[in-house]
């Protein structure tokens, strides 16, 4: 060992130099650590524990610490650390819960010095005190941290975080007695080694496990943390409460974080999975890495700067069984490959476009904003800074504002509040939503709802319009066949030649024909079903097939009254033309008549007062609902692509199973999430919850079923109530008793946040009208707001 020490000293006396290089390891590495003079590095893993020398051109294996025929689990290392004060002292964290120290000065092959087996589960981290030689700290999966004095055979202090497993522990570089610990529940705790009973400070740093932490080598109060939430956060610990001062967003869980020596703003990170690269970040520019090392082919497990005062050499170990030395000058710079242009739409339709100033400086038509308006600055110039190593880029930002009317989103809010998505028959929902869209001046959406009603409504179950919604044709059913002219036979005759027009009326297949009485010229009603009639020369427009608009009938009744008829006719029948010859041929030539089908009945009395033609089609005029599904699917996609995801989701909910199977689940989930996000942006919480509850997508319905547990404590014994009643199973007293009437509150309960007493809402309100003290007699001055 003396020889090894002499070699170390000789190499340490020379300046640090080298190149980017690597060596193959016998097994994947879990952690690495470098000695104080930066000439040797130790690599530890489940099946490897070796020391390599750092020479000019290559790594040279110096010592293999896994000795013996059957190496024990003490050699299976999860972490390793080389003491920065004593060059012969190493410590490892074993996967079996052991903390092992190694003395490289031992003359024997086995360098193991001391073995501590106080932890019950895997030890995740070991850390030497930066200045105290014999102080070692460990953090384990069992949730405990232990401080060892290497001159003794057992730990001198045990720290319980009262939390889940400890993932990292780090002594402060500037405070002698302080160390930080990170936990899997997202918390970070600060401890004083002199007070093992309770932590000095605790705060929630990440949403999810905190895998690593590192104190800034120069700034006393800065602590960097990395977690599963893919973020690296820098905290200022000098204030009363931990303050987040920087946050870097990465693309994968952060496994290691190390501050770069001699560079205040730079830190290096590696990921726990997915991403194999090592990134160096400038915390002032958190959106793009300052430098990237892309040599590893598998996940990087350990990173360390070669020397605590040299920022140009970085060492790394990986699961690809390689050990690398990276030179900073060989790192790739993502900023050099970054796209200098940017384009973004605002929530209200504003368009922002950024580009290099040199690209658009020749555009003389671009009008800048007034100099007094600082909301949209045109040029962003970075002040020259000698310590700033990012490329200096001046950009020009142009903002194109939409018109004031087009950016208003009142229609979205009103539509969301007024739409009905359930609780009524399908036809009523469509009619109501069509009316809402029409009132908001959205005719296309209104027409879409009307068409959906026509497509998917069952004509036999349509509600009969009221007396104020009678069209020119009387009570015309909204049948889901859109070509009534094609399905019926219509003969247009020239009245100037003494001919009159016949209009064919469709009956349901089960309806009977209308019989005629030629002697008295009276019509009799059909046997069942609903029949429609048209008389004389009344014109039938296409719009009349779908219009249910109200018309004043008082005028019609004054002009056309036939009291002897069962219902009023269009007008008085004046002419008595004879039957045209070609109408007699229609009985045989009509395309709708064949076999024993009902024939066209021509009512021709002796005096030829009127002419009525009624026909029945060969096939049912009602198309199946699935016939329209492809059209509806394209329509929903069109609305979604146009940005009206509200319409797409509303139709999905109203149609339900009629259309759900036609659209894949991922598309539905995307629409639902987009609409729910918009509703929550506009603080429409009730509408958002209704959409979640009525959604047809299983991935959406579970959104409002998380975090819905309400924990209730007994007001007497202050312990959690396990049963669902009003009696506490511990103290056997009523938990929610009204302080005024002393009865159990089974409905709405109101309580004072100061003294926790309360009762029925009405009773407490009446009490506080004339009293200011708590009705329970505790003396607290309660106030109802």
UniProtKB/TrEMBL annotation:
<keyword id="KW-0472">Membrane</keyword>
<dbReference type="GO" id="GO:0016239">
    <property type="term" value="P:positive regulation of macroautophagy"/>
</dbReference>
<dbReference type="GO" id="GO:0034198">
    <property type="term" value="P:cellular response to amino acid starvation"/>
</dbReference>
<keyword id="KW-0072">Autophagy</keyword>
<keyword id="KW-0833">Ubl conjugation pathway</keyword>
<keyword id="KW-0677">Repeat</keyword>
<keyword id="KW-0863">Zinc-finger</keyword>
<dbReference type="GO" id="GO:0061700">
    <property type="term" value="C:GATOR2 complex"/>
</dbReference>
<feature type="compositionally biased region" description="Basic and acidic residues">
    <location>
        <begin position="487"/>
        <end position="506"/>
    </location>
</feature>
<dbReference type="GO" id="GO:0008270">
    <property type="term" value="F:zinc ion binding"/>
</dbReference>
<comment type="function">
    <text>Catalytic component of the GATOR2 complex, a multiprotein complex that acts as an activator of the amino acid-sensing branch of the mTORC1 signaling pathway. The GATOR2 complex indirectly activates mTORC1 through the inhibition of the GATOR1 subcomplex. GATOR2 probably acts as an E3 ubiquitin-protein ligase toward GATOR1. In the presence of abundant amino acids, the GATOR2 complex mediates ubiquitination of the NPRL2 core component of the GATOR1 complex, leading to GATOR1 inactivation. In the absence of amino acids, GATOR2 is inhibited, activating the GATOR1 complex.</text>
</comment>
<dbReference type="GO" id="GO:0006914">
    <property type="term" value="P:autophagy"/>
</dbReference>
<dbReference type="Pfam" id="PF00400">
    <property type="entry name" value="WD40"/>
</dbReference>
<dbReference type="GO" id="GO:0005765">
    <property type="term" value="C:lysosomal membrane"/>
</dbReference>
<dbReference type="GO" id="GO:0005829">
    <property type="term" value="C:cytosol"/>
</dbReference>
<comment type="similarity">
    <text>Belongs to the WD repeat WDR24 family.</text>
</comment>
<feature type="region of interest" description="Disordered">
    <location>
        <begin position="486"/>
        <end position="528"/>
    </location>
</feature>
<feature type="repeat" description="WD">
    <location>
        <begin position="203"/>
        <end position="245"/>
    </location>
</feature>
<dbReference type="InterPro" id="IPR001680">
    <property type="entry name" value="WD40_rpt"/>
</dbReference>
<feature type="repeat" description="WD">
    <location>
        <begin position="116"/>
        <end position="158"/>
    </location>
</feature>
<dbReference type="InterPro" id="IPR015943">
    <property type="entry name" value="WD40/YVTN_repeat-like_dom_sf"/>
</dbReference>
<keyword id="KW-0853">WD repeat</keyword>
<dbReference type="GO" id="GO:1904263">
    <property type="term" value="P:positive regulation of TORC1 signaling"/>
</dbReference>
<keyword id="KW-0862">Zinc</keyword>
<keyword id="KW-0458">Lysosome</keyword>
<keyword id="KW-0479">Metal-binding</keyword>
<protein>
    <recommendedName>
        <fullName>GATOR2 complex protein WDR24</fullName>
        <ecNumber>2.3.2.27</ecNumber>
    </recommendedName>
</protein>
<comment type="pathway">
    <text>Protein modification; protein ubiquitination.</text>
</comment>
<keyword id="KW-0808">Transferase</keyword>
<dbReference type="GO" id="GO:0061630">
    <property type="term" value="F:ubiquitin protein ligase activity"/>
</dbReference>
<dbReference type="InterPro" id="IPR036322">
    <property type="entry name" value="WD40_repeat_dom_sf"/>
</dbReference>
<dbReference type="InterPro" id="IPR037590">
    <property type="entry name" value="WDR24"/>
</dbReference>
<dbReference type="InterPro" id="IPR019775">
    <property type="entry name" value="WD40_repeat_CS"/>
</dbReference>
């Amino acid at each position: 060992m003396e020889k090894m020490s002499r070699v170390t000293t000789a190499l340490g006396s020379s300046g640090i130099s080298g190149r980017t290089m690597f060596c193959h390891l016998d097994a994947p590495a879990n952690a690495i650590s470098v000695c104080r003079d930066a000439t040797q590095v130790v690599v530890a893993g489940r099946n490897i524990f070796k020391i390599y020398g750092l020479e000019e051109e290559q790594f040279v294996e110096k010592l293999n610490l896994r000795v013996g025929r059957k190496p024990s689990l003490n050699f299976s290392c999860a972490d390793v650390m080389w003491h920065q004060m004593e060059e012969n002292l190493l410590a490892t964290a074993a996967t079996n819960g052991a903390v092992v120290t190694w003395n490289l000065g031992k003359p024997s092959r086995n360098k193991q010095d001391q073995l501590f087996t106080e932890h019950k589960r895997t030890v995740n981290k070991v850390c030497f005190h930066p200045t105290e030689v014999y102080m070692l700290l460990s953090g384990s999966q069992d949730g405990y941290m232990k401080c060892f004095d290497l001159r003794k055979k057992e730990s001198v202090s045990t720290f319980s975080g009262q939390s889940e497993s400890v993932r990292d522990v780090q002594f402060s570089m500037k405070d002698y007695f302080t160390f930080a610990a990170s936990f899997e529940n997202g918390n970070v705790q600060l401890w004083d080694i002199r007070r093992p009973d309770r932590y000095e400070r605790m705060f929630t740093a990440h949403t999810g496990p905190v895998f690593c932490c590192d104190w800034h080598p120069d700034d006393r109060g800065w602590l960097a943390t990395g977690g599963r939430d893919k973020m690296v956060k820098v905290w200022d610990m000098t204030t009363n409460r931990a303050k987040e001062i920087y946050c870097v967003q990465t693309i994968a869980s952060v496994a290691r974080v190390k501050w770069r020596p001699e560079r205040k703003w730079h830190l290096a990170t590696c990921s726990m999975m997915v991403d194999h690269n090592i990134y160096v970040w400038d915390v002032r520019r958190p959106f793009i890495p300052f430098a990237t090392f892309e040599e590893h082919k598998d996940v990087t497990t350990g990173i360390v700067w070669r020397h605590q005062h040299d920022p140009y050499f970085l060492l790394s170990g990986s699961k690809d069984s390689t050990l690398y030395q990276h030179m900073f000058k060989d790192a790739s710079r993502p900023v050099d490959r970054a796209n200098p242009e940017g384009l973004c739409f605002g929530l209200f339709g504003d368009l922002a476009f950024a580009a290099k100033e040199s690209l658009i400086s020749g555009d003389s038509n671009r009008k800048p904003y007034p100099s007094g308006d600082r909301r949209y600055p045109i040029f962003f110039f970075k002040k020259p800074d000698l310590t700033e190593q990012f490329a200096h880029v001046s950009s020009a930002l142009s903002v194109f504002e939409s018109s004031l009317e087009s950016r208003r989103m009142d229609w979205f809010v009103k539509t969301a509040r007024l739409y009905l998505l359930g609780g009524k028959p399908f036809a009523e929902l469509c009619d109501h939503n069509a009316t809402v869209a029409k009132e908001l001046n959205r005719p296309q959406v209104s027409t879409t709802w009307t068409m959906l009603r026509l497509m998917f409504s069952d004509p036999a179950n349509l509600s009969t319009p009221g007396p104020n919604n009678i069209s020119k044709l009387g009570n015309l059913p909204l049948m889901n066949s859109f070509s009534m002219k094609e399905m019926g036979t219509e003969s247009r005759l020239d009245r100037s030649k003494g001919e009159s027009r016949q209009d064919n009326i469709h009956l349901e297949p089960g309806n009977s024909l209308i019989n005629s009485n030629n002697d008295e010229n009276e019509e009799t009603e059909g046997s069942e079903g609903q029949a429609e009639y048209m008389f004389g020369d009344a014109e039938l427009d296409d719009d009349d097939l779908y219009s249910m608009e109200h018309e004043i009938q008082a005028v019609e009744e004054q002009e056309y009254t036939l009291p002897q008829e069962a219902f009023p006719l269009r007008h008085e029948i004046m002419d008595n033309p004879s039957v045209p010859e070609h109408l007699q041929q229609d009985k045989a030539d009509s395309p709708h008549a064949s076999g024993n089908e009902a024939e066209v009945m021509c009512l021709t009395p002796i005096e030829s007062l009127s002419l009525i033609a009624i026909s029945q089609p060969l096939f049912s005029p009602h198309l199946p609902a699935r016939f329209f599904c492809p059209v509806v699917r394209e329509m929903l996609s069109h609305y979604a692509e146009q940005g009206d995801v509200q319409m797409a989701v509303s139709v999905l909910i109203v149609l339900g199973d009629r259309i759900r199977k036609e659209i894949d689940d991922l598309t539905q989930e995307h629409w639902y999430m987009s609409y729910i996000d918009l509703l929550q942006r506009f603080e429409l919480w009730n509408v958002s919850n209704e959409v979640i509850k009525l959604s047809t997508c299983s991935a959406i319905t579970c959104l409002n079923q998380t975090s819905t547990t309400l924990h209730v404590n007994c007001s007497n014994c202050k312990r959690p109530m396990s049963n669902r009643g009003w009696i506490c199973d511990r103290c056997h007293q009523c938990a929610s008793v009204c302080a005024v009437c002393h009865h159990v509150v089974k409905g709405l309960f109101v309580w004072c946040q100061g003294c926790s007493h309360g009762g029925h809402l009405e009773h407490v309100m009446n009490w506080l009208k004339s009293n200011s003290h708590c009705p329970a007699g505790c003396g607290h001055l309660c106030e109802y707001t």
